[in-house]
Amino acid sequence: MAKKARPSSIDAFILFIQSDARSLQYIAENDDKKFMARLARGLSSSRELAPRGPPNMRTFLSWCSSREIPLTVAAAIEHRKHKLAEAKFAKRDFLRNSALSWTRKQTDIFMDSIPKIDVELPQTPYPEFNCAIAETESTFNLWSKTLLKDKQPDARRKRSTIAVLDQINLVYDLGPNDSAVFRDARSGETVMVVIRHVCGNTDLLTWMDTTITDACAERNSIRKEDSGTLAQMGYSAGARDKERFNWVLNLRSTTPQSRSQAAISDLNSSVAFALFWRLAQKHLLREIIDDFAQYMSSIAIKRMDANGQLSVKTRNGVHPNPTPSNSTNPEPAKLAEEFYIKPGKNCPRPNIIEHRRNEVAGTYSISIKDHVFTFRDAELAPPTGVMGENYSRAMHDETQPHKWAVSWTVSRGNLKDAGCNFYLARYGIRVQMSSDTMIAWRPTDLHGTSLPHADPKDKNPEFKQRGMAFVTSSRLSRVWNKYLANK
User: Fold this and answer.
1) What is the pTM (predicted TM-score) of this model?
2) Is the pLDDT of residue 318 over 60?
3) Which of 188, 226, 295, 330 could form a disulfide with 402 if both were Cys (CB 3.0 to 4.6 A apart)?
């Protein structure tokens, strides 16, 4: 703790600031970092003040509040107060307009208001396994040669078939503006959740769309046999023949300039996923969020932290994940409620030492128009995800270390019959896509996305759809545990 400065030193500090226009500017603009740096440089030449060093901002403001100060300093501090108040109200409005500030009660009321649709499990899935769906004959003609005859990126993979959609075979066709919770008619289990206009903030959606565009332009697609680009973000299990827990290495170019640009992309993408995760927590059913929380808690895995760029920390050494409902320690329970995680019997108490190894909360900022919104000590996203542009894949199923997957389609062009619609083929459901749509589904159920109405050889097609998703390699947990064992 710094020693308390003598009154004469305090007055000398303030006199120095009074005569330095740049220091006054930084105070007024609420730029504490630059102010303190300026103060440190300015005082280094002062024989009286240099040994003491500059005070921290809180101490400086406390000094100023307890004595008469020059009018210029007082005016700068007053301007700072107004700036802080404006920033506070702007952030409150941003959170409210982006649906990022909902309480758990608001989420429950919202979910109760969404139509519940019970669907019978058909005898035969539609579309069938490994079938790429074209919404129209013209889309079929664009893609048939590429899928059926052209050289495959991976010759070991079985070619998919291709067919034109026959709507009569659909069990349910969800319109582009309709939200729904689909349930299995026999078991009553939720099988898919679709939420429209989930964010509603045009400025945030534009920022997200730009971030996804940059990521897809800079990175290789992880599924070259499919249409469009699907770029993995966050932590990776590495190549199958050389497994290693590491930040994803998928840049198209490895020049110093590209790596520097990628660091910015890593940061923006991690912020985007943190906001996506927060939005999912505020809107989806508890069972879906609990599923991800249980997965992350069970192995205390690292969160998406921009490859260490985000300042991260645990909360009082405690991982903010589920704890038993009979826990006598109020702090973990309080944290669980704050992150909207429902404690339960199947959620073992986290190992405190293990959770100190990886950090789950951090500080990140996002610049929207004239404002910079900072989220301090906020929960970071799950460790890995994907960003995609015009991505589609034939009907498939997959195993992940959690039961649910979640996608957010951020933007979609207005071209009619453009494709890129989501299919829960096991239940014969088509979800017609639209901008700002969040979908949660079970990856083990047969699913896929229809082909985009775009020439496979066109690098800049008229139609574009972009989005992001939380999906995880089935190998990631094992590779993470191996990484911990070797630390």
Assistant:
1) 0.81
2) no
3) 295
